[in-house]
Amino acid sequence: MATTSTSRTPTCTPTPANNVVKNGGFECGLAPWIATDSSGSVHSITQPGDASNAAYQFNPGPTSEETFSHPANVKQNLTSLTVGAEYVLRFRTYFGQCARLTNYIRVFVLRSEVTTVDSCDNVAGRYSDNVYGYSGDDKD
After folding, report:
1. Is 33 exposed, middle or buried (0-12, 13-18, 19+ CB in 10 A)?
2. From CA 106, how far away is CA 83, in angstroms rounded?
3. Model pTM score
4. How, if at all, do strands 127-135 and 73-75 pair?
5. Nearest CA among 73, 79, 65 for reference residue 113
6. How far apart are CA 98 and CA 116, in angstroms?
7. Is the peptide bond before 14 cis (omega within 30 degrees of 0)?
8. Could you report the per-residue pLDDT of 39-96, keeping only the tens digit for each?
9. Are residues 49 and 55 in contact, defined by beta-carbon separation less than 8 angstroms?
């Protein structure tokens, strides 16, 4: 479900050189992110999002055995991680309600799950900050 606003649309600006994640605020649309929906789910890029950026919005639709075994996702292939370097992943999440079994975000780095953000651990109806430290020791 897209939002409507009278505020200015965010400008598509280049990603700072020191950012490994490109287009993190979705100001330039979806690319280079890759979105995969499960049965009944829908994704969109909405503007404005939080802090005048765009936002990746996901509506999971009805839950089923298929959505649990083949969950929807949005991912980006990171090609410039350095072995031994320290990284900080910062992102904001928004959940409309607490629903522990269906409203959560699993975060993976290099195919390994590093954290899960659960809707019930955040205040419903507000953006929440998420910060995760990662060491580039596991590059493969």
Report:
1. buried
2. 23
3. 0.70
4. unpaired
5. 73
6. 14
7. no
8. 777 788 877 777 667 777 777 666 666 656 556 778 888 877 888 888 888 888 888 8
9. yes
